[in-house]
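Quick check before the chapter quiz. The format below is the same one you will see on the exam, so make sure you can read both the input and the output lines.
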Amino acid sequence: MDEGDAGFLQGLRETFRAEAFEHLQAIVRALDELKDAVEDEERRRIGERLLREAHSLKGAARAVNHREVELRSQSLETAFSRIRAGLAVPSPQETDRYYADVDELFARISEVTPPAAEPAPPARAEAVADQAPRPGSAEAVRVPAALLDELYREVRDLLPVVRGERELESAVRDLLAAGPEATEAQSPGALRYRLQRLEQAARTGRRGLLNRVEDLLALTYTALLTPASGLLDAMARTAREQARFAGRELDVALAGGDLEIDRYLLDALVDPLVHLVTNAVVHGIEPPAERRRLGKPARGRLSIAVSLRPGRLVEVRVADDGAGIDTAAVRAAAVERGLIDPEVAAALPDRTAHRLAFYSGVSTSPLTLVAGRGVGLAAVRERIEQLGGRLAVESTRGRGTTFTMTLPMTLLTLRGLIVRIGSEHAVVPFYYLLEVLSRPAEAVVAVQGGSAVAFEERLIPLVHLADVLERPRAPPRDDRVRIVLVETSPGTWGFVVDEVVGEETLYVQAFGAPLARVRNVAGATILPDGLPAPVLHAPDLVRSAIARTGTGAAAIGAPPAEEPPARVLVVEDSITARTLLRTIFTGAGYEVETAADGLDAWNRLAVRPFDLVVTDLDMPVMDGFTLTRRIRQDPGLSALPVVLVTALDSRADRERGMAAGANAFVVKSSFEQSDLLEVVRRLL
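Here is the expected output.
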């Protein structure tokens, strides 16, 4: 192994160590919660989290060829999959064994790249949190000497500008300290001239400082760029190892290794790419004998390509010439999982049905050591969306599958469209932008009780961006409608804005705790005029639009109905249960909005009126009991009907719910749709 390979391997192991500790930390915290879980549904939710973390840890270990960690993670994954399926309720002794397995994994992973002072293996979540290094905490970055020289010159040249600002401040202080007597002794012309010189010096100094800081930021960003070859080489090794393990013959083709990409983005892509490469080898490429029978070459082909796209985008494609996606099996798995009704699944075009594979629990393959649990693609989709990107799939049965990830070239800056809603501004990232339209008001058509606009021979549903963000609209300035079309994994939608201001390249600040995940917002930026603005998260916006409109389109400027539908707020942390309840109430003609937990619901109740609340009990942040009590204690909400729909079926839970002020109590495991709607109709 030459020096370059050794350096790359060391860097990869350091990245793995940091990532692995994050997964272990999440596993231990979930185990802490599992000990206290008493309801089956709660245990299944925790099992889902445990399974995902173990699955991701296994994939990361495979990327660095850490066979022991991979096998131990596989063992945990098997146990956690039974918990998720409701087939196992671990005893305290079994939970202790899981803790011991995590401790052992910590020790094995620490051996990969031991720190200067090796900590003792942790026994619980708090210990892992204290000892696990964060990404970047001990990283070494290679920077060309010429770039360091340029950075030094920029910082050096910044000093005179800063000193000039200090001298300007000193001159202003001297002028003020001289007092009225000294100022009165000067002629008005001399005083005006002196003030003009100071003002001009201030403008020049600010302009020079801004230019220097922007140059310095650009150079620093350049220092963070890394060739994509390291990531591609690691994925090729993973693919070949998986092929040997699965008994496949495989050729791997790489492209785009010479492109320099934001190293934070490359690090973030490791786990999604491991999932996709494994999926291609295990699910896609057929065994040699099967390929010969089908008239294909015995050796399968896998290509991994990185390329740049207009709009400062990076495209990563993983393509195989294998069996393709079994669309019928995907539909059946999604129906069995309860994600979609059989009639709806049967009517979906194949291209749309393929996307069902991105949801948790949807798997079309038998269980193996590396796949078949329905976790990988769901984790990939969620991760890509967290990075502000899109995941697409194209597949032809018998000919192969291509997964395409499209992401911003850097996580530090973005090219965005600045729009105005009311008196406020927001930024729509270019990588979600499909088109910007300016149409006469009559171009908006009514569709299924909502509104849409024609674009490229299809109707795109519309909603006003201000309504989705729950902000006030500005009065129309003319008879035209300004529409921003976005294309995301959840769908393509049009958002009506009050004004399209322009486009800019902006520096983005992601939110930290406790705002690490804010609905509809990916981060914040400072606009050219110096004012802050949110950077919007388009997939969230589309989900919010769907939840808000129910029928797939929102009315824009339509006359109010004579009897507007009742507004129902559904509060449920389970995505599946939330979707089910929304579908039930929307189908019954109600206007539905959803919230992921009690605190989210409480914030919505503070800004919008609702006619009824349907809430789960067991939720993070704020549970249903607390939400119901708050509603009853608020003078403006005390008469609002509340229906508890929950898996908790004990007499004590019923009594506690009624004591909190609920109007009705419905058990999930036994309720019929008609019964639930009858309860709601009675209360409304």
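If your answer matched, good. DSSP finds 22 helices and 23 strands in the chain.
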